[in-house]
Amino acid sequence: MTALDLSSPVAVVGTGTMGQGIAQVALVAGHRVRLYDAAAGRAREAAEAIGARLDRLVEKDRLTAADRDAARDRLLPAQSLSDLADCSLVVEAVLEQLDAKQSLFRALEDLVGEDCLLATNTSSLSVTAIGGALRNPGRLVGLHFFNPAPLLPLVEVVSGFATDVSSATRAYEMARAWGKTPVACADTPGFIVNRIARPFYAEAFAVYEAQGADPATIDAILRESGGFKMGAFELTDLIGQDVNESVTRSVWQSFFQDVRFTPSLAQQRLVESGRLGRKSGHGWYDYGDDAERPEPHTAEPAQQPAYVVAEGDLGPASELLALIREAGIAVREEEEDHGTRLVLPSGGQLALADGQTSVEFRDVVYFDLALDYRRATRIALSASQDTAPGTLAEAIGLFQALGKDVSVIGDVPGMIVARTVARIVDLAHDAVAKGVATEEDIDTAMRLGVNYPLGPFEWSRRLGRNWAYALLDDLHLRDPSGRYAPSLALYRHAYASDKREGSTS
Ligand SMILES: NC(=O)c1ccc[n+]([C@@H]2O[C@H](COP(=O)([O-])OP(=O)(O)OC[C@H]3O[C@@H](n4cnc5c(N)ncnc54)[C@H](O)[C@@H]3O)[C@@H](O)[C@H]2O)c1
């Protein structure tokens, strides 16, 4: 089924934030849409709100007045559930409670025709559990839209254990016909996006809790070096700390308190104190007319080194050598079997973040991973109390000579971008191995659902097959809680590549 079947109406039950957005999507795609909400008058209010949004689309020339009028005529608030009997699809977006959703679907099953597809927009409940209430759970599928549904293209099409392949296919094709980008996934906690995105927040909070850097600095590094649209602190202030924390908590609980998903104490304190982000006027940052956004730590100008010696292959950071030469700094390349470093004139060394700490080596400064060293406008450096001040100054001067702002953070293993990306890559491999989704769908979901600059597998390919595994293995040694333990899937991935490349290690 590729064409839209517009012969029978679509119903949206629960006409709050998500229901309204989903109804608008179906409406603009050409459907007749019935709106039903348990709260009296809510469906009518929702119809008016959708109408007002269509008016704005006309003002912005994104919809013709004639199409707006036709869409308004196709939108019908329903008085009771029985008004939905002739619908070919019912999308449920009621409150996030298992018994509420189960009793709704039970009632719907007695009303609608055999061919009617039932869909839930749940973000944290199990589609399988919801379907447990149905005589025919095969017709129930998860259709997980993202907020705001009319704008965000991603839809996760979730198959519960009992969902018929034909139901999932219908839902997938319907989402596509609505102009969305569907991805298929299994019914596991957090589905794709809410599962694989957890380390983006967790690692930023962990670096902050370890006194590695302040929120403004971590955000700036994630944006300007990592290539993320927003940093974790500013993004969670926008989402709402309560909303973000409850997703983390739900994924963590659903995985039987798996340490890889442990919520952040600092974020919990924020929620407990009512500092929920933009909506409450305070979160990690303060909001309001006279609130000032703190500046990220940025190092004072330092003298650039006259030359560097590059030992070994810098791997994901090899682009740096060209940049250093372009800045007029001489680079001497030397073969090196062990380690990949830049040696500075003082004798101190500069190494790409690798999951070890600076204090373990004599005179080493670490630099963080960048999405693209040429385009990055900021680079994080970390040093220990044992690093010679001259080495740190040379490292700062080197990156400043490349036109970068430099943020010096604490001696945190894996730094900020590197540990975040390594953990995202790991969870993505783990998810594929557990049958959650394909590599391609995971990449699509993370780019469209949370705006990542690259999907985890694209990123992993750029970094080299072994990179994330090696970094996490080092981190796991230094924090044996299990939080950083690389998954079996990532281990297999790294080991397979070693064998292919003929390594004996
Ligand atoms: N808000 C988001 O960002 C988001 C994103 C994706 C998925 N979701 C999921 O979408 C669903 C709805 O979330 P929301 O944010 O739109 O909630 P909301 O509170 O804005 O709206 C829920 C609506 O459902 C109505 N309702 C409650 N019980 C009902 C019932 N038994 N029958 C009919 N109507 C009923 C309420 O009156 C309310 O209008 C939840 O399952 C949520 O997890 C939310």
UniProtKB/TrEMBL annotation:
Domain 3-hydroxybutyryl-CoA dehydrogenase reduced Rossmann-fold, residue spans: 354-413
Domain 3-hydroxyacyl-CoA dehydrogenase NAD binding positions: 10-187
UniProt keyword terms in alphabetical order: Oxidoreductase
Keyword Chaperone: no
Domain of life: Bacteria
InterPro entries membership: 3-OHacyl-CoA_DH_CS, 3-OHacyl-CoA_DH_NAD-bd, 3HC_DH_C, 3HCDH_RFF, 6-PGluconate_DH-like_C_sf, 6PGD_dom2, NAD(P)-bd_dom_sf
Pathway note: Lipid metabolism; butanoate metabolism
Chain segments carrying region Disordered: 283-302
Pfam families to which the protein is assigned, alphabetical: 3HCDH, 3HCDH_N, 3HCDH_RFF
Residue intervals of the 3-hydroxyacyl-CoA dehydrogenase C-terminal domain: 190-287, 414-493
Protein family membership: Belongs to the 3-hydroxyacyl-CoA dehydrogenase family.
Matching PANTHER family: 3-HYDROXYACYL-COA DEHYDROGENASE FAMILY PROTEIN, 3-HYDROXYBUTYRYL-COA DEHYDROGENASE
Name listed for the protein in its UniProt record: 3-hydroxyacyl-CoA dehydrogenase
Species in which this protein is naturally found: Streptomyces coacervatus
